[in-house]
Design a protein that fits this description.
Elements: H1 7-19, H2 22-28, E1 46-49, E2 52-60, E3 69-77, E4 83-90, E5 93-103, E6 109-113, E7 118-120, E8 125-128, E9 134-140, E10 149-156, E11 160-169
Parallel strand pairs: 2-11
Antiparallel strand pairs: 1-2, 2-3, 3-8, 3-9, 4-7, 4-10, 5-6, 5-9, 10-11
Helix pairs in contact: 1-2
Bound molecules: copper (II) ion (CU).
Length: 184
Amino acid sequence: MAWTRPRGVLGTAAIIACLTLPAALASETPQASAPTRVAAEGAPAVYRVGTITVERPWSRATPGGARVAGGYMRITNAGPEADRLVGGTFAAAGGFEVHEMSVGADNVMRMRPLAAGLEIKPGETVELKPGGYHAMMLDLQRPLKAGESLAGTLRFEKAGTVEVTYTVQPLGTPAAPAGGHSHH
Ligand SMILES: [Cu+2]
């Protein structure tokens, strides 16, 4: 799960995404048109801080009473050194953790916090997605509704903090891989 792109292309994509349409972004970054593309219409979809690029942060609508929500995005490190996603914030949540999913000895898939954060190696892209690495929004203060946008931040060990906007996709979009995401 890695590809490299020239810095100039990333910079251009970021500017285009901020000023114009997601459609323009899609033509700049072929990988963005994968089947699970989830960027909301009109929402800025690419964020940069230092050598880190964050693409299309999104979350999913939650049923009433849910206390947690997942945060998903694609993170690319164009720099020469590894960096780590170590924290963040989310407007509707009281806490934020970085989680991984893994299958235990009992063959049950579980999530656990990455105490040292999620490493993004030089030149690599890491996808946070249902069933895999994800941001975990804790202590949700209200249900998330499909179509809304929520502000947040992402904090990287070296690159620092970047403000992002999460778009909330409908429940079940895209379908989570087998194993699901039931927890807490
Ligand atoms: Cu989690």
